[in-house]
Model the fold of this input.
Amino acid sequence: MTPSPSYESDDDILSQQNCRRQPPKQEPEDFSAQKECPIRKQEGLSWAFDKKPSSSSQFDVMVIQGAQLHRHITATLGSGNLREAVRLPVGEDPNEWLAVNTMDFFNQVNLLYGTITEFCTPVSCPTMTAGRRYEYRWADGIKIKKPIEVSAPKYVEYLMEWIECLLDDESIFPQKLGAPFPPCFREVVKTIFKRMFRVYAHIYHSHFQKIVHLKEEAHLNTCFKHFILFSREFQLIEKAELAPLHEFIESILLQH
Ligand SMILES: [Zn+2]
Done:
């Protein structure tokens, strides 16, 4: 029996049965072949559009479409209206909107974490926590099936690699114009957001003083507000998952 591909999990299993439309022919059923998938921690927003197109003009159109959506995000963010920035643009495909924003939020949290990596070490953060009450363990459902306790930097490394491999998987994040998104697309995005939130929660609980020292708190807060408002707009993160930053999130939602 061919095993179903799985992307998970630590505390919940994301069922992948009937998820992928059709596994690419030359790819294995699972992600074991993608273990070399690199983490690009410092490449910034350009990453989302730096994939080299094939000669397909359809792909070019897709890249342009993605770039237009990205410009829309930047323009609305520049207006300072975060509520407006998260809203689905009129006439836009909701999945496409989710995909472009997922890439942007991934790049953002990667860059933010990148600024404190020298302070987030196995010694300072031997487990991936969000305050005293919340600890996260890692499993990807393939190489690591049973959740393991890892240091915070190791957890984030696993997480970023896992997200990047998903973003690179065209059966989940299609790049060709008109290629359908898989039925499980929204569930995949939700799991990505749930886990990205944990990086924010760890930064706020364990490294906020360092962020203040680096004078980055305004930027962190803006990125997090944008992330929370987007998650809320599309109901991407369960309330229980947000508990480590509950009060802060309530204040954000009251302000916006
Ligand atoms: Zn840390």
In short: The chain has seven helices and two strands. The beta strands are 128-129, 135-136. The pocket of zinc ion is lined by residues 120, 124-125, 152, 202, 206-207 (CB under 6 Å).
